[in-house]
Amino acid sequence: MKRNRVAAALGGVPWWLVLVVGLGIVALTTALADASYRVIFGAVAKGFGVTMTVAVVSYAASLVLGLFLGLARASRFRPLREVSTFYIELVRGLPMLVILYYIAFVGAPALAGVLNALLAPLIRSGAIEAFQSRSFDFATRAALALTLGYAAFIAEIFRAGIESVDRGQIEAAHALGLSPAQTMVRVVLPQAIRNVLPALANEFVAIIKDSALVSVLGVQDITQIGKVYAASTFKFFETYNVVAFFYLCMTISLSMLVRALERRLKRENAR
Amino acid sequence: MSGFIRIVEARKTFGDDVRGNRSHNQLVRALDGVSLDVDKGEVVLIIGPSGSGKSTLLRAVNRLETLDSGEIWIGDDAVTAKHADLRRIREDVGMVFQSFNLFAHLSILENVSLAPRIVRKVSAAQARETARQLLERVGLADKLDRYPRQLSGGQQQRAAIARALAMNPRALLFDEPTSALDPEMIKEVLDVMTALADEGMTMLVVSHEMGFARAAADRVVFMDNGRIVEQGSPEQVFSSARETRTREFLAHILN
Ligand SMILES: Nc1ncnc2c1ncn2[C@@H]1O[C@H](COP(=O)(O)OP(=O)(O)O)[C@@H](O)[C@H]1O
Ligand SMILES: [Mg+2]
Question: What angle do CA B58, B61, B66 make, to 5 degrees?
């Protein structure tokens, strides 16, 4: 009896979390005690802002673009559906790294050309300067690439959410005289977004990890700073420990928030 | 001679425009030349076996379904006109569904006040007040802030009726409003419907509730295979139907 209860109590403990937090505390205390770790911490921390900025900006932009792509994907108007499906399939079929190179070295010159053509009168009159590839710094190009890539994933999440909403409620809205657009905004999207909130939040965790890809363009994020530091000091072990520590702090805490959110939504739905 | 709702030779075939199903040998004639006039204030009950086209007929009246041919008029508005003002038609005709279809993310009060606010542009305060009165009328005054999932089926259906009434419709369509309800909840919904009928609401009701038919229906229409087989007063149809098909069906549901 008693033994069973102890076993049940022990079974309920999230042991992986205990381990993670324990290791985290060990890592931090070691770092604070060890002078060379302190230096590495200070150096890598300088990349934290860049990593977060790239992740947050790309995520916000891909939510907006993804919503429109998802709406187009669920649209009854065939051309819209076809175009968005084409885009989504194309982007999802490419490695994120290839999208990154593509936007950085093909997309940026092309974008400069397009902007120059569109704004030709202004440029000729001297009101603004002509664009060049280097008008867009690499951090901007990297954020653009992540946005275009993640918008495709997020569009599919929105589409699934939109399709999860009960058809009967849509009919009821139409029967009350709401237009298709009013029905989407007032009835479908509030429920769709709520249903996919955890999935959307998980994409933020994913984009934080994928933001490390921007290091290949030399953008000074956590990974890039760590890479350069390790290469110049040969302290690979210590440096990548610190780099991993930073990512884990962000991703694990966010994952836990997502789980809490999921539980809360489930509770509310059951009420 | 001309009713308030006029349905003239309505025809609708399903099968060839269903996405992903192009095979023409699966055509279903849901409506095969249905004509029906409903006067102002009249309560018409539609009965018939499953698949006989009752829902399709109701859904054609507020243009949730588009006819292949035939005409439907509500007052002077041609529902079936190519560029019909759907919003106006749907403002005029309320609909109550078998599965309630309340908006799950809104409270009962918000469910009822949404369309007046969004479609009619009534002020939020006014819409809330009207919604409160309507919910009181269907006996839900103490449930205003509840969400649909927190209510019983009977309460949800009464809220759905209040939601339809909030648009101040000139006619109401009911598609099997009590079929999804537990027996003990059917009466509370039928009582609300009977009260509406007594107040002179024009109603087109698909239902097999004989009690409601006797208490409130002016006319009973029997449909089979997309056609109206026969119609008459409840008394006439229930106790002395002319057609064998009608008698068989009635015997089956009354068992
Ligand atoms: N959206 C649809 N697509 C294909 N067939 C349909 C559709 N709606 C109804 N039908 C068919 O039309 C016929 C009439 O259906 P319905 O009007 O729902 O009948 P009832 O309400 O009397 O049971 C049935 O055979 C049904 O399968
Ligand atoms: Mg039906």
Answer: 100
